[in-house]
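Protein 1 of 2
SEQ + STRUCT:
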Amino acid sequence: MGTENDLDVEGQTEPPIRGLTRSRSVSSQSNPPSASPTLAGTLVTDDELSTAFDPDTAHTLPVPGVCALLNTNPENGLDAAEAARRLQHHGPNKVEGAKGLSLWTILLRQVSNSLTLVLVLTMVLSFAIHDHIEGGVIVAVIVFNIVVGFIQDYRAEQTIQALYALSAPTCKAIRAGKVETIRAEDLVPGDVVRLGVGDVVPADLRLAHSINLSTDEALLTGESVPVSKHAERVLKDRDMPLGDRTNMVYSASTITRGRATGVVVSTGMNTEVGKIALLLRSGRRDAGEAEASGIRRVLIKARNGTRVILGLDGTPLQVSLSKFALLLFALAITLAIIVFSASRWRITDNVLIYGICVAVAVIPESLIAVLTIATALGTRAMARGNVIIRRLAALEAVGGVTNICSDKTGTLTQGKMVTKRVWLADGTEVSVQDTTHPFDPNSGTVSINGEVYASSDATRRASTDEKTTAQLRDFLETVALCNNSTVTAGNAYTAVGEPTEIALQVFAMRFGMGKPALLTSSGKTLLSEFPFDSSCKRMTVIYTDGTNSFAYAKGALEALLPLMDISDDQKHSIVAKADALAAEGLRVLCVARKSVDPSLYSQDALDISTEEGPGAMPRRASAESHLEFVGLAGLYDPPRLESAAAVRKCQDAGITVHMLTGDHVKTAVAIASEIGILPQPNGVSDNGAVMVASAFDNLTDAQIDGMERLPLVLARCSPTTKVRMVEAMHRRKAFCVMTGDGVNDSPALKKSDVGIAMGLNGSDVAKEAADMVLTDDNFASIVTAIEEGRRLFDNIQKFLLHLLVSNIAQVILLLIGLAFKDDQGVSVFPLSPLEILWANLVTSSFLALGLGLEDAQPDVMQRPPHDLSVGIFTRELIVDKFVYGTAMGGLCLAAFSSVAYGVSGPYGLGVDCNEDWGDSCGVSFRARATTFATLTFLLLITAWEAKHFTRSLFNMHPEKWTGPFSVFKTVWQNRFLFGAVSAGFVIAFPVVYIPVVNRTVFKHDAITWEWGVVAACAVVYTIIVEAWKAIKRRTRKMKSVGGEA
């Protein structure tokens, strides 16, 4: 039970995980300090106690010393009055979560971007010049953007609640000499708490008494197996790592074996869990702000606030779009100045309206709405892939990840022990592979001396009868009977007990020799049990069937080897094999047995909880002497079956996976090699790929930055090690994801660009800190998230191209349109303000949204991450938008000119035709309608052409469809986009022809022969776009050939 070959598995020179060393602060009330009697009879105030006693030194003091400093008695505890007074002074034993997001904060998120601010300014100007229709439309756009984003963020925030589940709801405390069940939050320093198997430790305790105690500290330290605890030990090093403080138990850990009594030394935010939560509350506060004072601090806060409001703090896409919006705003002002200058600054109402029209044409009003909706739909797709998105921005951000820093236990591995290798005395070797469920004896395959057996229990049982040696049967019988765990089958296999014993019991059950089956078939009964004890590191049981009696033992190799009747050569052989198993990262157990005389053991020896009583130790010594060696068992926490494929897929996508774990370096290296994180076997030949956290922590930032690359495996990590790793990646301009499940992962989750927590076995602290939560705790789901993020990034580029092409075309059309003047020298609008808004908000929005729903490209996970320094606006996107925008704007100008000057009526362009219909406005209104129809149809064509930046619309998916009719399958593939194009085509006709709507609202008139001009422009535009794509394909092909040469 909990036995292991510590010598072979744990490198003693490697320091275990360290806890946070933040100085302790004790909350105080306004009440005057009161006095309480010490054991010596003097009076000491609570403030004096806080000064005299430091919980970080509790492990260096004997129990009486701790009790004296805390004014308590380990036998009787505190009385009710003293406990109440201390509760008032220290406050409740609760860990406060990271500051939750208020509704106001969520709302502020939606408006904290430059594009929204630009829209607000445009709205204000529209109302200022009494253009209520345009202003009202922009108001609707702003409200829609805010509502969609608010609803999504609010729902995500409600999916995960913080921290309170970590605290044990009740506990057993000794008050005035009586054991009472009290609320865990009522504990105070000095309380005496009783602990048993399955209890959650309610506070940080200095152990006063312990019997066979082990705790599971995986959520706090990352250790994958329980840690043995010993109340009697007094340690010397004040700064000893948490994992080595074996006389302490910490809040939120779980008792897996034994029982104990402990004195509370820290509660609430002063516990180790509380210190980590305190880091989360501080968030990403600027270090300079903490050190600055006075005016400088005010300036730093103002700078940070401005960055948040302008959207310059966030993911790469958020920052890129915010900077782009500021650029567009500057461009809009510049274009308005150009319009005013062209009128020689004689700014009439018409000139002012025209200037605002040009400015509005620059702004992609629907961008935020399209981006928000596309991302929200992406979150639904991610939910089907077992990923909860807590922040919309995290979805697009994860698509640009360059590095993944993953915890090992429970993330890359299954978080449970499995018997992987067995070596028997006769040389027989048994191994277990491909286990997907550690509790299921039918999961995976079994190999005996290289011969693989099927996974079904019946087949394996039959194989056992034919192939298995007597030595293996002895081994299975020993590990099954010398075992207190239970494994039961129901809808799914469940297990209760210590992880090591569960692993051995499941292994025996694989051969049909589990403990219940053996007891039923053989009629064996238990005579005596000598339980595991950390001082002797072994366990022995004695069974009899009425005829024969045997002692079955298991334990650490160094504990059992001296008790065996074998030669020195055999001992050397066993040690060598144990070392070989340990080198594979396995935890090694030794198994032995012997025949005994049942008369030496009686039923009154069945006190299995202690070894007290006359004759107990002589009976144990007799049972554990002259043992026969049976075999060695190698156990480990196996990787998830899909982890290797997920890691390989990440590497194919140019993403580097790092393992950051609190476990031992041998175990970490074995798992990393097995799943492919380390490219060379065991990482030996790859210098610097594996480091122990102590060595990494001793490096300065400059030394870390000087490394050729950061280590792929960091073992024995502390929370600060993980944070330093993330900071080092940031200095290298990497965009990193941190995954984890434990409390110890939370600061790094918060610090990383995208934090991903485990939903099933993860702590609430980790979920609170994360941007995403995996509902199945599967590392492979991260690959799904990255793939979805990349798909979203590609689609954002597609609809950005579509929206910006429209804006560039309108700017070209409106600026050059200044030359179109009526008889009074007033510029005639080629497009009315409402036509511009209609094209931007109605026609383009649904087309852009359709592009946002495009499927992922076939090679989305076979290409490296996009360049974060370039961001969303790649060179190709910028060039394409100017090429297509110029072509579209030029053709719209050609359409207007063809009607306005090709068939000019007696009134030319009329008089005052920008505001209302008049008898002289027929030509200008028809020219405007032709231009509007041309712009609309060219936008519809662009939507389909933007599905791929280089492939022709007529051969876009050659891997799926070929031939002249493949274009129809291409456009039909995305049903939403097909519907948006169809609707855009159909709705253009009523907008042009419905009376009143056309002349009064849109300032254009019905057209007839002009449709020929529209069709010609559409054909020419398609030819230009296809020609440009062909040029790009030919250029890339030439570069590819040149590179190969």
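Protein 2 of 2
SEQ + STRUCT:
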Amino acid sequence: MSSSNREASVASEPEVVDDTASTFHSSLSRAVHARRSEYVRPHRIRVKIGSWNVAGRPGTDKDLASWFVEGKGVERRLDSKLAGMDISAKQDAAGTGTDGSSTVQQSTKSGTGSNIQDDGSIQQEDGEPSVRLLGGDKIGLYVLGLQEIVDLNIVSQTFYSDPNAIAKWQDALEAALPSGYTLVASEQLVGLLLLIYASPEVAETISNESTMSVGTGIYGLLGYWGNKGGITSRIVLGETTRLAFTNCHLASGHDQASLDRRCWDYNRIKAQSKFAPINTGGVSEDEGDKLGDEDFAFWFGDLNFRVDGLPGEDIRRILMLHSRGEYDLNKKETGKSLSDDGVIILRNNDDDGSEGSNTPGMISREASFDNGRSDENTELPDPDDFVPDPHDDPASLQATLDSLLPHDQLKRMMKERKAFHEGWHEGPITFLPTYKYDVGTVGLFDSSEKQRAPSWCDRILYRARADVDKYHRKCQDEIESKKKDEEMTKLGIDKASDDESVLFDYDPATDSSNDNLPYEDNAYEYDEYDETENTLEQAVTREGLVDRIQLDIYTSHQRIMSSDHKPLVSMFTLDYDAVVPELKAKVYAEVAKEMDRVENEGRPGVTIIVDGKDSAGHNKTSNGSEGIDFGEVGFLRKETRFLTIANTGGVSAKFSFVEKNSISDDDTNYPPWLEYKFVRSSPNDESEAQDPLGDEVALEPGETVNAVVEAFVKDPTHVRALNDETAQLEDVMILRVADGRDHFIPIRATWIPSCFGRSLEELIRIPREGGIRAFVKERGKGGSIHYDLEVQKSSPNELVTLTQAVESLAVRMVADENMLENAKVPRDKAGWPFDKSSWQTTDSEDHDELRAAIVEALEEDKPILEILAADTPTLKRFEIVSEVLLLFLSSMPDGIITTSLWAKIEQLLPSIGDGKVAAMAEERRSAMLDILAGAPYHNISFVFLTAAITRVANELMPLTTDELQALHSGARKPGSLGQRSLSFRLLGSGPSAAASADVAAAVQRRVAWEKRAAQIFGAAICRAPTPATAKERRAAEDRMRGVVEIFLRRAEP
């Protein structure tokens, strides 16, 4: 979709260095960067941006030199700003830029002038000076954006770019530019073309050029076509300042759909424009820039925004009167304009003795531009000599423009935050609309059959980094303000404290209401008294340097007649801090020499400090060689300790953690109960979110970094080993310092025996009072519980506690649903609250804390519902308790249905998972109970669990007598419940059809819930051999589900 005919002459990316040299270059670059004040100096350049939709017209390239480089084609009296300038040689201040040199030039010729006729043609007359804009070698950067350089009506050119078109325009521009100007970027996207040229002095300071294009045209098989879209080029100026230039052509059309499409085009170009990472001194940034990351951005082209809300014929008629000088009949109009020829008179206020240097296109800001003139002989001007403000003159062109601009779509979209609202600025519009004219005329608007309304379709916008930051701050302020208002409304004090807030809470220093006026309600209302066009925009670059930009000129070239659009130009003065290569080379050599000396003096070394707690829970700081003691660690209870690692050596140190068994390997497998990360935030501030830095960290001498080490036992297999004392919470972590010595950090913790991860035969031998912890304390030792001990209960007390809590919460959930408006049972989610995919509260901040509290209550034989705060929503408590119940069942090594019992089930009931639940339920239940009779404690636990699940189902999915009859009548028929046969038979026809439909829906929900719950609990309690194939696995899963499902179906009423 896009192509480039010639490669840019400015180098973009240095060659990537190898990994061995990367470390040295990274440290060297940081050290050199720290001394940037020694090699950075202020500079100034002028940037000239031109935009023109050439409409695919032949011969338009012949006009490029005259308007873009030479500055010709400006019609002074059709631009209210230029018309008000005194450009005589006696007036030094007219049109001057920030360096004192004029951005507007004059030329005179005694022979002819020009007068615009009714048809837009020019009649030459005598007399007045003509106006030209600054150009030639006084510009540091020429940026040209063209649209429709090919005929977009030709289908083939919508797909492919024409390299000949690029060559034609590059040749035309290069022929016009002074010698020595270098091509920086050249990119074509079908009809779009972006060209950037730099003066010799500026070109050598440009790096990291990255250009990309985004198509937004008609969507086809190859994506979005390039007949509409944007081209964006990013450059870095002086190694410090990032500039982005976007040339675009947005969707055309005057209707609302076209306006919406233009906004969509803008947002797509903005979102898709991403650049290559910046590479400085051989070190690349991790990620590439996107639009919004630059220091200064310029967006220009045929934006196609129209003037709406006014009759097009009225707009054309009024503007034509102005173009012919017939609008103000009381004012004598000379009708004179200027010729294209003449001598250019360029004024510069510099003295011959001025310090500093001025180069073509790049001027040092250290130069003095003071003419040293004394005001002693200066006479005050006569008040009658002042030119009246055109905004105050209802017959002036500017007054007419002021009346049209409130109807400009672009300003409205900016105000409504639909496009170009993120800090974009535009200079004052003092010129006629740039579209649409009859080709070959100066001021004759569209006389074709369509008679399009004149509009400012062609625009040039700009912004600084500060503008983007202000926009984001304002958005954040609005969010916080809205949140505060909502909180106050809930508390009923949204209006009660208005007076106090005004009197006592107002802080002028923090009032940001005027920080960025473009975002206020009337920010984009056209202000006829706005005189801010010369205001400096300031940006703090990523390097921490302060740059400034000023808009000097924003106008159209009315007398360029080869297209139906008029060319548009903006001229900016950019003050920035740039790297001086000679000074940087000197600093670089000094830093490299010093680093070599330090590196040769010794190897890197670090010191480790452990910030933790002692056995009493008090804060304690110790040397890393003493290790980390986590104290007591329980199941699902996270314990955290902090390390502070300081580079106490004389050279840069790079280090990372390695596992003790892989000292000579590159493995990074850590113990399952240990996790670590390097973070930026202080280890003493546990309330702040820790910002991870990655697996490897590099420190300069004197720098420190923090590491968080967490002990978190969550694997049931590990829990079983810890309970049996076949595993210990002991390990050694190794901090490996590159080119230095390894640091060994012993890690230890004391395991708290848990009821999780124990077999049913062990659990029934734990006394009823005090739980597993009291039992271990009484025995004076941990380890497994021998089967020769006396049985204390027929079913594990933990299972009883959890199932009772689940039943109680089910009742409470239904009660809350009946009493509270926002408490709804999610009956549409089959298996809730046991299906983890249906859980709604697992992402809450206190989820892990509540889960650990329930586990601890079970281990201490405490009522778990009393552990959970009363203000905790019932739905959250219900889901967490259900999660712990499933975790408890899954952690039992032999489950409730042991491997031996499962073998008998597969032998005697091979078809138990065939889906025929109700039809053969009674027979299969009897067979299952016979099998389980050989393991009475497992039998009791199984029946107890399935009965509890059934009670939960009856609470959450209750069935009426009619629904139960429908359930069992459907089960006695061939086929399964919930199939079309049941639904069709129940629905029937007539008045009872609706009631029958409700019955069928309720039955189907209940059947789906039972099936999903049986699937979940079957996998949790059954211990089957691992199947060899996927088919065998599915069959085993069906049988597990069937084992539970036959016990969940209620008997017939």
